[in-house]
Amino acid sequence: MMQQQQQRLYLLVLVAMHFAVVVGDDDFSRNDFPASFVFGSGSSAYQVEGAAFEDGRTPSIWDTFSHAGAYNGANGDIACDAYHKYKEDVQLMVDTGLEAYRFSISWSRLIPNGRGPVNPKGLQYYNSLINELVSHGIQPHVTLCHDDVPQVLEDEYGGWLSEKIINDFIAYADICFKEFGDRVLHWTTVNEANVFALGGYDLGFTPPGRCSPHVGIGPCSRGNSSTEPYIVAHNMLLTHSSVFRLYKRKYKSTQHGFVGLNIFAYRFIPHTNATADEGATLRAYAFYLGWFISPLIFGDYPVTMKDRVGSRMPTFTRQESEQVKGAIDFIGLNHYATLHVKDRPSAFERDYRDFSTDAAIQLVFEQGGVTPKGEYPWTQPGLRAVLEYFKKTYGNLPIYIHENGQTTPRNATLNDTGRVEYLHAYIRNLLDAMRNGSNVRGYFSWSFLDGLELLDGYKSAYGLYYVDLDDKNLTRYPKLSQQWYSNFLKGKSRKSNVNLEIGKEVSHSSESEFSS
Ligand SMILES: *[C@@H]1O[C@H](CO)[C@@H](O)[C@H](O)[C@H]1NC(C)=O
Ligand SMILES: *[C@@H]1O[C@H](CO)[C@@H](O)[C@H](O)[C@H]1NC(C)=O
Ligand SMILES: *[C@@H]1O[C@H](CO)[C@@H](O)[C@H](O)[C@H]1NC(C)=O
Ligand SMILES: *[C@@H]1O[C@H](CO)[C@@H](O)[C@H](O)[C@H]1NC(C)=O
Ligand SMILES: *[C@@H]1O[C@H](CO)[C@@H](O)[C@H](O)[C@H]1NC(C)=O
Ligand SMILES: *[C@@H]1O[C@H](CO)[C@@H](O)[C@H](O)[C@H]1NC(C)=O
């Protein structure tokens, strides 16, 4: 007890507030974007809902992953308790001025056996949340699968490794469209499809944590990094396109909504001007983005991937190719940072092949000079470059920026100037892209609340609101970034100096819950 107290004290940061900060001289505002454009913020089910064992929910692969120790004991059992606090949270969204909220449905809360009967309590929760949003004029943008496949389906047939998931996912999506589609217009089948395939099956650092013994960051007890990421991606594309076709056939004419897929997108730039690094940069785009986008636009994987991956690359039948091609109303992009790309020809000569050696590239992250350690650089935002790449390579299909935001240590101050700088720079960069013709329809900051993060549990945070995990009420505290974003959304930041005041006193000691 004593030790705990001391630890608490040690970690305790009293952030004395009531200060004014000048954030101003913005030469743009929300009104520079089209009225039909939406600005929001986001979350996902496992990261904020909590109530993991309540009202009939069963575990997902993310529950299993965190309970196996991925985050040193942290998990989403309670998280931000958004399951119970959704009304309060929607009120905070109203206060902030959000026009849209991106969240995901927990498949295993809605259909606890993965297939079959719908859980009435799960249905009631999502209906209540959607109604609460809609009644406040906030558009719901819904993701169907955000890393959280029902564990029961993982156990039965290996989840995304099996084609069996296609029919179960279609049935799940059908229920969501039928039950919620009268109020939800924007549907995303899978979040960060590429990261899920790589993190989950090549390097093993995200659920379900599979990789070959000597490849992953692991440690993985099972998996095959050589083959599984490609199989999983293939099944995702077949699933996504089936769900897209289902919506078109059965719901589009009455509900008038849209179905998209979400991809994680770095901006890649050559490490040097050497031709080899420039070629490697094109390969990086082909492997990370083309892997999913090429089939959706052109009906097949990029040639460079097929050549390099060879017989391990699954193939589309003619019929599948036709099904996948064009099966997209919009692309959701999650973008955070720029990476430098180096050619790595030696990788290709290795006996053991996985995604990274197939691509024969090395990715290098360069921390900008002015950026505090542990935060993303913001002085040279790469969002516009990614959007220009999309426009040039895949035609100008509609895009939603589904995630973009700054990371800080969770116990950092509410005076999150680095997050303000980041959001400001990236939204400005987005505006430049749109003025040059990019077909972007919306922007969602990641994240609304400080939730459980995919990579490190509760160590890092992205939220506009800090959530005090040591307080039984899980009280939410607005950060400076919440006030900046709110002012921006309310059209107040154009050429004006804004006085921002930050909340009350708050103790940050939540690290202590997990550190002993
Ligand atoms: C935040 O937590 C980290 C890791 O536990 C610790 O090293 C650091 O000192 C903490 N920072 C503050 C401001 O408490
Ligand atoms: C907030 O942080 C900025 C930059 O670190 C600093 O200039 C400012 O004084 C801080 N505000 C308060 C009230 O501590
Ligand atoms: C991965 O699968 C391939 C193809 O089935 C096989 O040749 C290889 O030995 C497997 N590797 C591992 C590490 O299991
Ligand atoms: C590449 O060339 C451009 C223009 O020729 C130059 O501005 C840039 O500094 C060069 N980059 C590197 C990494 O050498
Ligand atoms: C602006 O768009 C045009 C046409 O798509 C493109 O050629 C040009 O490179 C873009 N400008 C920048 C700075 O990316
Ligand atoms: C927690 O919430 C309850 C009910 O709203 C309230 O009475 C209590 O003061 C709150 N406690 C804290 C520490 O905020």
Provide structural commentary:
- The structure is a single chain.
- By secondary structure, this protein is an alpha/beta fold.
- It has a domain at 31-266 and 375-491: TIM Barrel (Alpha-Beta Barrel), CATH 3.20.20.80.
- The protein has helices at residues 2-11, 45-48, 61-70, 82-96, 107-110, 120-135, 151-157, 164-180, 193-201, 228-250, 252-255, 275-298, 303-309, 318-324, 345-348, 355-359, 383-394, 417-435, 480-489; strands at residues 20-23, 38-42, 100-104, 139-145, 186-190, 258-264, 267-270, 330-334, 338-343, 361-364, 399-403, 408-409, 440-446, 460-461, 465-467, 476-478, 498-501.
- It has an 8-stranded parallel β-barrel with strand order 2-3-4-5-6-8-11-13, surrounded by 5 helices.
- β15 and β16 (476-478) form a beta hairpin.
- It starts with a helix and ends in a 15-residue tail after the last strand.
- The site of one 2-acetamido-2-deoxy-beta-D-glucopyranose has 3 residues, from loops.
Q: What is the CATH third-level topology name of the domain at 31-266 and 375-491?
A: TIM Barrel
The total count of strands amounts to 17
- Secondary structure class reads alpha/beta
CATH architecture of the domain at 31-266 and 375-491: Alpha-Beta Barrel
The Cα radius of gyration reads 22 Å
Bound molecules: 2-acetamido-2-deoxy-beta-D-glucopyranose
Basic shape: globular
Mean pLDDT: 90
Rounded to the nearest angstrom, the distance between the terminal CA atoms is 11 Å
Write the CATH homologous superfamily of the domain at 31-266 and 375-491.
Answer: Glycosidases
Number of discrete helical segments: 19
Organism: Nicotiana tabacum
Keywords: Glycoprotein, Hydrolase, Signal
Protein name: Beta-glucosidase 11
GO molecular function: beta-glucosidase activity
